[in-house]
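User
New here, explain this?
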Amino acid sequence: MELLKQGKRRSLISESMYIILNIVLAAAILAAVIISEVIWPALLLVFLSKWRVLAVRPRFWMANIQANLVDFMVSISTVVLLFTATSWIMQVIITVLYVGWLVILKPQSKKLAMVWQAGVALFASTTALFTVSYHWWASVVVLLMIVIGYGVTRHVLAAYGEKHHTLYSMIGGLFMAEFGWFFYHWTVAYPQFGMMGIKIPQVAIILTAVAFVLERIYNMYIHKHKFQLSDIALPLVLAISVAIFLLIFRNGPGVNSF
């Protein structure tokens, strides 16, 4: 009985330390952005915080990087959004959301949680990328979209235990690359959907909606081994409605093209 109590006490202490260290990390990243007024110190903190990814033999590096790619995407996107936000209030909000990612969502390993992790990574990464890439080469944007698509698709497929996750993840990367090339030439952002310096790119909303439908289709195929339109009617109608609304009715006043 005493051993059980000691084990619970150690578990509680380790969990508390984990939460405290992640809060300190998020606060340090925010402080680095505010104090230095450049992005590099905060990015360096992010990479230093992921030291455990490379704390193995070199032959395991690639596997660890791929397994943690979604976390890298969210962390880097957080730094970018902190840097582009023009209000300290928005920076604090982003930091709190990042703490929620580190402490609540990221540690979970259930299928639904992993799907949510991929969705957050997709939305955050595309928002950050298209917020700062309007003057970059198109090839760089397309390449980064391949990485985003690969990482997000792989994370979802890993949640389902897909055997051919590498091939399907590459297909997901190519799919995202096409969207990236198209929206690079037509980047629209909504200040109404953002706050205090954060503009939400149209591509982030549309791609998240499309990814939601694709995940529902894959889920249906895995469990029923057949396609039934009635089973995905609601998410499909929702995604199409969002896309039509954004493409037609939200391209007027108050909408910015980068």
